[in-house]
Specification:
It is a single chain. This protein is an alpha+beta fold. Helix content is 29%, strand content 30%. It is built from 8 helices and 20 strands. The strands form 5 sheets. Strands 8-13-9-10-11-12 form a 6-stranded antiparallel β-sheet, with helices on both faces. A 5-stranded antiparallel β-sheet has the order 18-17-16-19-20. The chain has a 4-stranded parallel β-sheet with strand order 2-1-6-7. The mean pLDDT is 93. Keywords: ATP-binding, Nucleotide-binding.
Length: 350
């Protein structure tokens, strides 16, 4: 293939609402290559008849809203289960030109996809019903009840069976919000809390702690300039004391700092390499199993007191803000643009 000259390439970043456009675009503008022209838009700003988009971009030191022709590549940052808009865009600009087609995953569907290649790293997970929730609590003593389409720990309940026979139900913090005297009372309360939403039940993990605080390990996996999955970084969110939800975090740091605090450096490095290997396998499995065209995702791990790694969940729209306080993390924002460049260059039309 002949090397292409660096003509200006227009890439669009699709976000959920107009308020997000400037904030998101500013992050990527700082990391774009000179030959890239970026604009940010929402689904409602697409004019399907004229094949144009009213988008926000930055030109001559100011923010400008103008009408663009359909871009060369679209990077989807809308957190949604719907693919309708992306499918219409693909019909217009090409099926290989839109990535992260759908990025709000059904946690149970992802669990099923990962359960064969990565079974040793998955806590037992089943769809919620009152009988199953009672049986698994008897088996594991601690459960997490999660919405299938939840995010940032919202709607997650921790359930613990005490030796006294009481059952504690808590949200965000280990201290119980509700204490059930027996299993029927626990079932009734949980049914009321969950309502009609789809939930799953996940085996609780005896979490390793750092300075008496729960932490997770999040691997950010993104496609690079060669179109290949690679691990951009591995960070840890340290929850506030008494809190099990790491989305409500006291601090964020690189995971090697946490692991090397807990273990000798060689052992910590083995954990990190294992995390990288599992995360790459998870990304490949999710993309091939769902049939979605993806460009990034994150894999959240917990480490238990027996030094065993567990995949807690996979996120289709990684939260980028958690990386902003780290120096040298430009790749978080640069990689999606490099992958967009790759898609342009490797399009059948080019």
């Amino acid at each position: 293939m002949k090397k292409k000259s660096r003509t200006v390439r227009t890439f669009g970043i699709m976000v959920a609402n107009p308020r997000q456009r400037k904030y998101v675009l500013r992050k990527y503008l700082a990391r774009k290559a000179a030959h890239m022209r970026l604009f940010c838009f929402t689904p409602s700003e697409i004019d399907w008849k004229r094949k144009t988009i009213l988008g926000l971009h930055h030109a001559k030191w100011k923010w400008v809203q103008q009408r663009f022709p359909f871009p060369e590549v679209v990077y989807n940052r809308c957190y949604t289960t719907k693919k309708t808009t992306i499918e219409r865009l693909e019909a217009a600009i090409g099926s290989s030109k839109c990535f992260n087609q759908q990025n709000r995953f059904d946690k149970y569907e992802i669990y099923k996809l990962l359960s064969q290649p990565l079974a040793p790293y998955l806590p037992e997970t089943v769809p919620y019903d009152r009988e199953t929730a009672a049986q698994l609590l008897e088996t594991h003593k601690v459960l997490y009840v999660k919405p299938c389409y939840g995010y940032q720990g919202k709607g997650v309940y921790r359930v613990e069976a005490k030796e006294s026979g009481e059952i504690h139900i808590s949200q965000h913090y280990f201290s119980p919000q509700f204490v059930a005297a027996d299993v029927p009372q626990y079932q009734t309360k949980l049914d009321k809390l969950l309502g009609s939403a789809l939930y799953l039940v996940q085996q609780g993990v005896n979490l390793q702690q750092w300075n008496d605080q729960v932490f997770d390990v999040r691997a950010l996996v993104q496609k690079d300039e060669s179109g290949v999955w690679s691990v951009t970084n591995v960070v840890s969110r340290i929850a506030h004391k008494g809190c099990f939800n790491t989305s409500i975090c006291d601090k964020i740091c690189m995971s090697d700092e946490v692991l090397r605090h807990l273990y000798p450096h060689e052992k910590a490095d083995v954990f990190l390499q294992t995390i990288r290997d599992i995360s790459l396998k998870a990304a490949e499995t999710v993309e091939s199993g769902t049939g979605l065209h993806l460009g990034e995702l994150s894999v959240d791990f917990a480490l238990d007191n027996d030094e065993r790694l567990w995949i807690i969940e996979v996120n289709g729209k990684p939260q980028k803000e958690i990386y902003d306080e780290f120096r040298g993390q430009d790749a978080v924002y640069k990689r999606p643009l490099q992958y967009a460049d790759y898609l342009y260059t490797h399009s059948p039309l080019h």
